[in-house]
């Protein structure tokens, strides 16, 4: 079993590597994808990153302007390598492969944990085995969204990598690295800060003693804050000013750059009346963050699912979403529909002038609805499964698996 | 006596009254109040108002009608220590330059120069806190008050309509020729009030000139670091290395803003004319008739205020107000004939010179012909024409002194006729530096900007390039590239771009500024290009005619061109230089005398440089527009989607599953029901 899976694993990763490198060989394709609004947003665009690095290199403070809104550590990361396209290519490809590998590991860990809990919950009754890690990795690595995002050199990749690493480490039980990874993810694109909660749940899951649990949580939070502040300090040292805080997080929160994307915010705030703009901005941003706590309480048994749900919430409702969604399986029709029509409608509006902004907005809406339905359905399914698991049908009250269930 | 409405010949009394009369007047009123035991405030107010009214009425009326007022002033001045008043020059000069162009257009340049003197014993003159503006004689009071209240040291405001054709016309005499409105000012920075003062300045000028200058806000205003230095010898002194360390010099700040989409019309001209001492009642200004002026290919009017030196050592300083109007009339439009006359161009004649003017001249620059005797003009100047400039730059000039010529009762007239309408061999003017700027790319998502600069000189020229781009074009400086003669040029050692200053734009807060010091090789064509993204604006940020697009103001090139070279606009720059060298008259009388004996002066002239500014085209950029009829739909739809999620999620989070005990008659069908 093991050698064959190793073989097919290396095959998958080799193929993914080859595919990416091959696609990178077409610079026009990379540039075209990098310019596509569905892929690169104002806070993840590689073009803007290049501009930031260029300004930084030439002594112009990069955050003292309206173009560059990405974290200073990305600046530091790309500063030495941006002049070499090969290194940039390799960095993106390898990071993407690393995410695939980590997903594989996560699935493996989950399977192991699941087996234990299944044994605990159902006795020896076995469910059909879930998808294997390799399948997940394959799904990720050959997901067209992932590929175009990688080829388009969107910097959301690094944020995703940090998130996935955080979850992986969380499942492995490595407190330090897990918290650090989440801190990096939060630092890179703010919203993943929420994931600190489910990862903490993962870390404390196995601890039974309430006191010890509390202590672990405290220690984890302290470590989280410490790593966050040290990253910020490092950024300050790098750019020698705190301007980046306003430029990076201010832009994310205030949605000041209204370049269209697949989200719901841009057109809303373009069309919003001036006097209500800040009100809706606050409401919408709170709306993103507000789910972290209730979801975590309700679904505390399933921290991985919380991660999925929160990531999708972020992906749908953040200011600048793009197609690179971590766990989005296709709600096939809706997503295909939006994926194909979005560039067409964009072209119609912006270049030909025969369509208008509403066309593209409608596609964004469809995409948003698709994700929302996905989230709701999966949550519902999970809760229902949970219910069935905790109160299995009892022969005593005469109900079978087909009993009627109410949500109260 | 004060209101700027002093008519003729009251200069001597005006000089006497140069002192601060505000203080003494207040004292006087206070004294009077005490003496008359008028303790009630209204009475005092009444008295003050009365005194002010008396003072502000024009002196001719005041002198004859209110003897009591003048005796009051006598009292004021006798009660003070006598202060030595330096002989401060106070003068008004008017000039009109007419110049037939190669394409048959006639170029006319009106220039009105007013000086207001300062005290010789003053340590420094900063334009604002000095007691200069205690009294107004020839200087317009409205401008004086603006300078005084907003601590403006130097002010340049230009309204332009149409585009100056550098290729055909050479360089204009007026220093600014960018389409739209251009305003720049040096402000005092004593109390760190610069931005507040600038805002107030733009708003006040907006009211004064009936223009939309108040739209020059922080998203338009820039502070150039290399271009738009202080003008005039006084400022040159101030900027010289000796004086730079002088800590007593007040800190100054430059502010620059332009509105490329501003239309210029009669309502801007009328307040401009009101600033002149003779208005348009007499002198050259009587030619300013708006329906003729605006029916032209190019129209530009400006006011320039700057401190200048009156002597070599800059002991005596004064404030100079230069008002210019520049037009290019298309004479050949109707019948192809190049013939013109003053009365034909302006539909008026000059009856007599402005009585307040120290000098009043009409200058005709004769076209530079390849063959002689092709044209004729009438009348000939009494002292004959003379040549100015050297070598290629030589130009024949006819000067008419209006003060002399209009004494002889008949109005001044001038006409030019051409012998052969078909065959005119006028020498082409070849401007030294010409620049063009244009957009590249298509679509409303991104684009590129290209700037082409030609150096037609045989020598290397240093230029300063300044471009201000609005924030809604997001520039990518890393895409900047340089071409020399159409070939990509790697400027690794800074051979061409010596220095580059870049201020990135901030959304809704400030524009992007690109300033470069460039060395142009001899006979070269340099092309810069840079790409940008277009920003998606909120629907309220679009103008009412959203699909027309947004105007992007001109780029400005400041260049020092060698004066002895002939290609600089056929003598035009000589006048520009004269203007810059702070000579009241465009053509100095002294020059007239010395013109025959060209000695040392020409040696200097060979080395001398003329500073000119070249303005590129303004551009129109169309930004992607949202659907302006959609706000309600978008708000409802988006909120629906968000509510859909929130509601369902809330449902899932707050409710638990429960088994329904099936009623006996209705067996469960294995279906979940949500309540």
From TrEMBL, chain A:
Membrane topology (UniProt): Multi-pass membrane protein
Stretches that traverse the bilayer: 77-104, 150-171, 177-201, 222-242, 248-269, 276-296, 302-320, 327-347, 359-383
Signal peptide: 1-30
Subcellular location field: Endoplasmic reticulum membrane
Known pathway: Glycolipid biosynthesis; glycosylphosphatidylinositol-anchor biosynthesis
Keyword hit for Transmembrane: yes
A UniProt-annotated Pfam family: PIG-U
Family in the record: Belongs to the PIGU family.
Protein name per its UniProtKB record: Phosphatidylinositol glycan anchor biosynthesis class U protein
TrEMBL record, chain B:
Membrane spanning residue stretches: 630-650
Key words, A-Z: Membrane, Transmembrane, Transmembrane helix
One example of a Gene Ontology biological process annotation: attachment of GPI anchor to protein
Region (Disordered): 233-252
Gene Ontology, cellular component aspect: GPI-anchor transamidase complex
Residue ranges the record marks as coiled coil: none
Name listed for the protein in its UniProt record: GPI transamidase component PIG-T
Organism (species): Podila minutissima
